[in-house]
DNA sequence: TTTTTATTGCGACTTATTTGCAATAATAAG
DNA sequence: CTTATTATTGCAAATAAGTCGCAATAAAAA
């Protein structure tokens, strides 16, 4: 399916590239000046994930967070690094720490979703 | 607060110890013969987690799964091992692989939630 | 047997995310 | 520039997971 450029897409990408962190749909929407429909934002985010532009992290609060793929060469391994959720400032960052593991023989791993939580550097200071 | 023994608690623990895997509230309820209210099951599960008898895993589908703590000495680090979600049989297992990482300096980690997904040994065979 | 209060069931509620559908707008075609 | 095509959007409603208040029930102690 062909893709078209829209204000929503541009705005979402801009917000995400500015913060560098992983953001929830709500946070993204709040950062965007213009009013965009919730469903639309989700659709844009999901599309970007499909296209390998963003990766999705599901935190231990059950919510989805989205971040720009910087080192997600392999689509299947998008998000193949640790994420950190600060319970204080409710922020999610991509840590520059790759998730390292050797699956038991016979297991095929196609997705990695690793989230550490606690207090981030800024809040701990 | 004092704890009382009830059929629900016994049933939940029995189901979980029999499978050895991590189960969703729904799966647990289905395995129990008698009818138990959803809210009650959640309350029992949450209580068990608080008491360090179970640990909770939030999978990348956003759902909670519960498993008996076997090697969860440190309560704060409960679930400090990888989990595997099979996209085929929708089963979640605790892998005997500890999650190993060194958080960036300044970060305080109090929780670990790591889920790999793909095809499990049985389904891949 | 009575008392105390943890536990349960019920129903309603919240929150996150998705979906159908008709209206709108980006882009290609003429 | 105008028109045609169809991706995208907004809206409203639907799903789904999990939680909560409250009155009724039932462990366990007295």
TrEMBL record, chains A, B:
GO terms assigned for molecular function: DNA-binding transcription factor activity; transcription cis-regulatory region binding; zinc ion binding
Gene3D superfamilies in UniProt: Winged helix-like DNA-binding domain superfamily/Winged helix DNA-binding domain
Keyword Repressor: no
Cofactor or coenzyme needed: Zn(2+)
Keyword terms: Metal-binding, Zinc
Cofactor note: Binds 1 zinc ion per subunit.
Binding-site positions, Zn(2+): 86, 89, 120, 123
Superkingdom classification of source: Bacteria
Keyword ATP-binding among UniProt keywords: no
GO biological process entries: negative regulation of DNA-templated transcription; regulation of secondary metabolite biosynthetic process
Entry-linked PANTHER family: HYDROGEN PEROXIDE SENSITIVE REPRESSOR, ZINC UPTAKE REGULATION PROTEIN
Protein name: Transcriptional repressor
